[in-house]
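Q: What does the assembled structure look like for these inputs?
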Amino acid sequence: MNDRVAPNLISAVDEARHWVRLMEMAELGAIPGPTPEDPGVNRACLTPLDRAARRKLIAWGAEIGLTASVDAMGNLFLRHEGTDPAAAPVLTGSHMDTQPNGGRFDGIWGVLAGLEAVQAIRAAGIATKRPIEIVAWTNEEGGRFAPGCMGSMAWSGFAPPETWDNVTDPDGMTFRAALEEHLAAEADIPRRPLGGRPHAYVEGHIEQGPRLEAEGLDIGIVTGIQGSRWFVVELTGKSDHAGTTPLLLRQDAVQDMVRAINALNILTQDPRDVLRFTVGRIEVSPNTSNSVAERVRFTIDLRHPEKEVLLARGDAITGVVQAAVRGCKVAVTERFHAMPTTFQPEVPAAIERAAAAQGLKAARMPSGAFHDAQFLVPVCPTGMIFVPCRKGVSHHPAEFARPEHLAAGTRVLAAALVDLANG
Amino acid sequence: MNDRVAPNLISAVDEARHWVRLMEMAELGAIPGPTPEDPGVNRACLTPLDRAARRKLIAWGAEIGLTASVDAMGNLFLRHEGTDPAAAPVLTGSHMDTQPNGGRFDGIWGVLAGLEAVQAIRAAGIATKRPIEIVAWTNEEGGRFAPGCMGSMAWSGFAPPETWDNVTDPDGMTFRAALEEHLAAEADIPRRPLGGRPHAYVEGHIEQGPRLEAEGLDIGIVTGIQGSRWFVVELTGKSDHAGTTPLLLRQDAVQDMVRAINALNILTQDPRDVLRFTVGRIEVSPNTSNSVAERVRFTIDLRHPEKEVLLARGDAITGVVQAAVRGCKVAVTERFHAMPTTFQPEVPAAIERAAAAQGLKAARMPSGAFHDAQFLVPVCPTGMIFVPCRKGVSHHPAEFARPEHLAAGTRVLAAALVDLANG
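A:
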């Protein structure tokens, strides 16, 4: 076990190079942000922009001798060979897609931190027994095709890869068609089997919450991920003329949506403010100002760290909506669920050792957000490194992390990778 | 005054020809309906489909000797000459655009009834002192470019024609650009000045309400139109990660919309159920299931036959929304208003005489819906003929009117036109 930090490894992590690569990636899909200093990124998965970002990553990897491969879900891997090539690799990475109005750090930092860490390991002349593989999972965000984490779910065997074949993006394209187009565009990259048995998985990520910044901490040692359940509620009423139809005779899907959300707000009340209940997407049909809405579809994102709470509140949704509406037919579909996850002790311990050896302030904490890491837990020891982000903002152009915080996180990742790859 | 009905005029109205023309028009923009017998129509204004419908109308008019002309708003006129060509014409018509998920009768019937009535007048050998002009007003529905009735508003001087230049359709095209494209496509049709001083205006329309059918009546003699006010409410909060941000720290635009609509439902309560309050259009941004909504825009359509009620409730909207929301900034914009309208006595009297002379069951009634006719009231004596429609449904593919009811309405229109044109 590598208890002490190798000084040459720490100094080999190049803060400036790392930041420049992040900013270069942020140009692929750049969108205006709240200020000229805060541009955002809109880089949906399986688009030409996503592919441009992947080619850039592959090229940077090739420069330092890493070999690329792609699996049937489009998950992309860059391999650093171990002294024992047959040993189970240590896996690190995250995702490269963003939310439609996303920022420059969510996901992409974890991938580029893996690249920078491996580059530093190689530059420091450190050999690892186990190979290290950097992974970019397909469609973590779920912004174009819902739900997110399709790549890691299929890779880990959580769901068969054909599960989402018929999911469509807002333009009506299916996930299957987008994936086939994508794989054809990457036909020159060697193909690898879907799935594997790594020795461990470590994912770096911005915190997406306010705690590290508020407490002046450098590193979050993530202990697990709260559970999530995603639902779509469809209310079907009757379209009528807004000027002629008396209100008592209407089956107004917008008004029934308001009744449903009022009732769901009561169902999801939590004095501790731990439960997360979000209606983030609403589609109205026909969606014209002078017609009573015939149909409304809205999403529910429900999260809680305790399985019992998630099950009880989530299972009550259909009944609560049915009791709340006045005239509409109700259909509630659960589109996704992931129960709360606790990481095995090995990876958090390695992260804790690395942070301590480098004199960084670290704390153990759960993740409020949803990550590819949760699907790796049944496959291998798993963990995550959080770094602070400004005001906890993410999924928005104002998302920001300081170069020195990102470099510190990358140094912890590099040390933890060496620790795990030689352990 | 033509107190008695000319039998040859009545028999010259051809129910079958009239129905076939309606069905032929319904093919332009046909969409599936609830049953194969009830297809709908989606024919947005200033589109190639709209232009195809207009060309068809012009061709049918040309076959019977009517001359076409177009004004700067794209309003289309077909002229039947009078024995005194200098006399102020009698105007009749409606509109040819539909709602996005509209039916086969709303608007187009009033135009084709005008054509059928004029054809019958000519076939019966009846000369009229005054010319009769059939008009198809541009963009009555407001489905593509809001608000509706732009053509008649500009023609009557209610608003300058450039008022809506920068209004955009869902694809971002401006009304001005669409109108210019349209006028270029109709450059071969003679241009006429915008506006005029007709002797009278008569518009035929399906009732869009249940009363005529329920009471077994053939004809509605419309006495006036209730007033309308249209608003757009924009709520601006803050986008956050749905998994990490505590509910108490959010500025969730969807939740503030729900609070606002709850408060507006109280503001618009009416035990008599005469007031019409509709939220028909909602746009959420970024509209992804796992992001707290940063911005919501929703529309309000408020109608009432009494000016005082419309002013009091409408003027209270901004304050009520501001008091209801928790964290969002509020911007309320009034996009359109039209105070309640009472038709002058001349045209309703002519309709009443025609219906009585033909032995039809008729009743005086206000219009719940909004029509081009309301903008003609300051210009000339104005009136409307309503015919029954099934269950009062409109703005939907299930919209239906029986051929015999439409023919009866057309016969009343024909007699009223002769009455007014020779009066």
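The first helix of chain A runs from residue 7 to 12.
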